[in-house]
Amino acid sequence: MEQLLENYIEGCKLGNAAHQQQLYRYCFQPMMKVCLRYHKNMDDAGASYNTAMQNVLTKINQYENKGAFLGWVQKIMVNSCLNSLKQKTTFELKEITENEYNSFIVVPDAYSNLDSKTILQLVQSLPQTSAMVFNMYVMEGFTHEQIAKQLTITIGTSKWHLNNARTILKEQIKNINKYENRKNA
What we know:
- By secondary structure, the chain is mainly α.
- It has ten helices and no strands.
């Protein structure tokens, strides 16, 4: 599979349309999962995917075979999703105190009985701005400083949205667990 990917990349660098199409298909499934973390529907996720893949194909000569290719593509996907959402989203300035931020505790067992599809649905049900910050912080590993810079918001607002997302998710997971416990009783 790695050799096949390398062939696609080299073909794309030469402008080969067949290799571009194959690379598009190769990236589709894993990168659509990334897009669906940011978008609530397939149409918007697909639009971000297409925009990002156009950027990938345009910038393919900048890929220097250092690190995982899909990691490089994922960065472009995330930026495409963020650019799309920034055009549609207005950020309300909200702040959270450090004590409020540090008081949130996640119980790992709460996630153990959830499958990836359920987790994706829970994240997609979050308010758009909180979901965006949650994805950037939890899934992509951005710091609050990086999120604030990328979204042109304050660090406190980034922390507030992360806390809001965590609070909503915690409540939703608690409700799912209650339902499962009643169902199994």
